[in-house]
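[recover] target loaded
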């Protein structure tokens, strides 16, 4: 089970940190990553790692502004979002999979477990 939190309303240029706490059998070796879905758009990969590895992957639009981190002891991943823009407005979801392969990392359907989503709204 995944519980996402930390969303809210922020002005453009501001920052937010999202958290995703996992319970159950998740942990080391699991891919726990972030997606987002804006109104009328498909869900898209935002940031993540493959099975908790050191290499971080980002969608192009957030590179240099977002970073992802993980606390394995707490089974929690974080998405630090800086220099937020109105186009970052979306519902942000965390997703987890023990079996997702590298080539499917950015594909929503490759993840079996999803959090409930947290709304991020960036005003201009």
């Amino acid at each position: 089970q995944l519980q996402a939190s930390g969303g809210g309303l922020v002005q453009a240029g501001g920052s937010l940190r999202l958290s995703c706490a996992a319970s159950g059998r998740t942990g080391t070796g699991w891919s726990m990553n972030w997606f987002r879905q804006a109104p009328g758009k498909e869900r898209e990969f935002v940031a993540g790692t493959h099975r908790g590895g050191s290499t971080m992957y980002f969608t192009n639009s957030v590179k240099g502004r977002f970073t992802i981190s993980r606390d394995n002891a707490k089974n929690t991943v974080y998405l630090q979002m800086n220099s937020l823009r109105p186009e970052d407005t979306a519902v942000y979801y965390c997703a987890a999979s023990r079996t997702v392969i590298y080539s499917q990392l950015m594909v929503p359907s490759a993840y079996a477990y999803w959090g409930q989503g947290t709304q991020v709204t960036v005003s201009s």
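[recover] notes: The mean pLDDT is 94.
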